[in-house]
């Protein structure tokens, strides 16, 4: 697996992953285009044949904070450390930018993701009621301060 800068040509490959993982709450191509146009830090995890295994994005508002926009790993390649590698790369970028805290939202019913984030020092700081639409699922807001070991 190789981590590389997420480029516009990866969008077509990530849309089926979005549909599979997030259903009605999937991001559209336009949303990914907007993220890239705004200069956010996005990475794609590729296999040896150049196929997208996963992707992740970070929005940096230095020096105060950065927000993990998304982390997604193709269902058939989960549990192989890809999500962990993507998260570590986003946290390294946040450190490089000198932000004081990294925040993210995660569905309250996504215990596996919450556990992964907790192993990297993220702690719950709030809940956004009905954040994910159209399911009306709440989002747990988690934060990791820069001084985390």
UniProtKB/TrEMBL annotation:
It is an enzyme of class 2 (transferase). It comes from the Bacteria. Keywords: Acyltransferase, Cytoplasm, Ribonucleoprotein, Ribosomal protein, Transferase. Transmembrane segments: none annotated. Its EC number is 2.3.1.266. One of its GO terms (cellular component) is ribosome. InterPro entries: AcTrfase_RimI/Ard1 (IPR006464), Acyl_CoA_acyltransferase (IPR016181), Bact_Acetyltransf (IPR050832), GNAT_dom (IPR000182). It is found in: Cytoplasm. NCBIfam families: rimI. This is [Ribosomal protein bS18]-alanine N-acetyltransferase. The gene is rimI.
């Amino acid at each position: 697996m190789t981590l590389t800068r997420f480029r516009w040509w990866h969008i077509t490959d990530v849309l089926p992953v979005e549909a599979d993982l997030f259903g009605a709450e999937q991001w559209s191509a336009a949303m990914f285009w907007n993220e890239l146009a705004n200069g956010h830090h996005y990475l794609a995890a590729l296999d040896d044949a150049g196929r997208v295994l996963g992707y992740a994005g970070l929005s940096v508002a230095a020096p105060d904070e950065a927000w993990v926009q998304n982390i997604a790993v193709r269902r058939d390649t989960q549990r192989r450390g890809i999500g962990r590698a993507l998260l570590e790369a986003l946290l390294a970028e946040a450190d490089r930018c000198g932000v004081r805290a990294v925040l993210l939202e995660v569905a309250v019913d996504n215990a596996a993701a919450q556990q992964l984030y907790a192993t990297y020092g993220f702690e719950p700081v709030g809940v956004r009621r009905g954040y994910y639409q159209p399911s009306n699922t709440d989002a747990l807001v988690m934060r990791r301060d820069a001084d985390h070991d």
